[in-house]
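Q: Hi! First time doing this. I have a protein sequence and I read that you can turn it into a structure. Is that right? Here it is:
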Amino acid sequence: MNEIKRFRLFAYTAYFVFGSFMVGFSAAMPSIRVELDLGYEMTGLIFSMGSWGFIAGAAVMSLLIDFFGVFWPLVLGLAILSSGAIALTVSASAITVAIAHLIMMLGASMLEAGIPIMAGEYQRRAEAVRTSKTNHKNPVGLGKLLNLIHSFFALGAIIGPLLIAGFLGMGLSWRVFFGLFVSFAVGCILVLFSLKGFQILPKPASVIPAQERRFGFARSLTFWMITVGIAMYVSSEIGTSSWTAIYSSDFLGESPERSSLLPSLFWVGLFVGRVVFSSLVDRLGPSKWLAMISIIGIPVVFFTLNPVGGWGGLAGFVVLSGLIHATMYPTMQSLIVQRIRKGIGYALAVFSAIGSVGSSLSALAIGLISGTAGVQTGYQSIFIYYVATMVILVSLFVYFWRKQRT
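A: Yes, that's right. Below is the predicted 3D structure, encoded as C-alpha cells:
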C-alpha cells in the first residue's frame, strides 16, 4: 500500500472514530441524564463544554503545526481523544462528565484542524501522479475528497448511536461503548505512524515575515464570510443531532432506546449525502452548490423541527435534514483550503474555533430556552441558525459571482 492510500486509510478511520465518539455522546445523553439526574440547563452546559474543548484544541493545534508540522500534533490529538473517552467511562457526576467531554473534543478538534491540511497535500500529489500518467491536467477535486473523508465521520455517527441503543437494549451501560472505541483510536495512531515520511508543511521562506505568514488570512473577506457561515451551520447541525433524542424522549414521550436512534438516522442522511453528492460539489462549483442546497433545505429543516405524524414523521424528516446538511461543512472547509494561502494552519484553527463558539453558545441557548419555555420551544429555535446559514451561503455565492464578473 503506497503512502497516499495509507493516508486515506488513516483519514477515513480517524473521522470514523471522531464521529462515533461525538454523536455517540449525544445519543447516550438521555441515559446519562437519567443516571445522573441532570436538568436541561446542566445538559446544555455539558454540550457547551465540549464546544469549548474544541476551541482549545484548535488553538493548540495551530501553534503546534506552526512549529512541528502536522504529524506529531495529530498523534497527540488521538491520544487526548482516547484519554477523554476513558475518563468518560469512569465518570460518576455531571462535573466529571463535562470535563471528560471537554477532553474528548479537544483531541477531536486537533484532528479536525490537521487532517484537511494533509488532504490538501494528498490532492496535489494525486493530481501530479495523474498528470504524469496522462500528460494532461486532470485534477482530483478537493471538495469531493473532503466530502468522502467526512462521510466516514457520518458512518461513525450512524454506528455509534446504533451500538448505544443495542447496549441499552441488552441492559448494558452506555459506558461500554466509549471503552470499546478506544481501541479504534489506538489503531489510528498505528496507521498514522506509517505516514511519518509524509511532509505536509514545508518550512516557510525567510523572506515572509512571521506575522504575515501566520495571520495573512485575517484580511480575507472570503475567510470571514465562510467562518461566520460555519458558526451558524454547526449550531444547526449539532443542535439537531444533540437535541433530537431529548425532544423525542421528553416531549413525544418515546423510550430512551427509541429516541437514541434519531441521531443515527440524522447521520444516515449525512453519510448518504456526502457519498452521493460529493462529485456534484466540484462539478457545479462549491459556492453555487452551497447556495442551492441551503435554499432547498428550508422546508425540510422546518418540518424536522415541527414534525407531524409523531416519531415516524420526525424520523423521516431527520433523515432528509441529514441529506441537506451533509455537504455543507466539508465544502466550506475545502473553500478555506483552496483559497487561503497564508497561515492555513491558523486559518483552519480559527475556522474550527469559531464554529465551536457558535455551537457552544447555541447549546447554552437551547438549554436555557428548554428550561424556561419547554423543550419543544428550545428544539424549534434551531431553525434560526439554519436560516442564518442559508443567508450567508447565498451571500457568499453572490460575492464570488460578482468578483468573477469584474
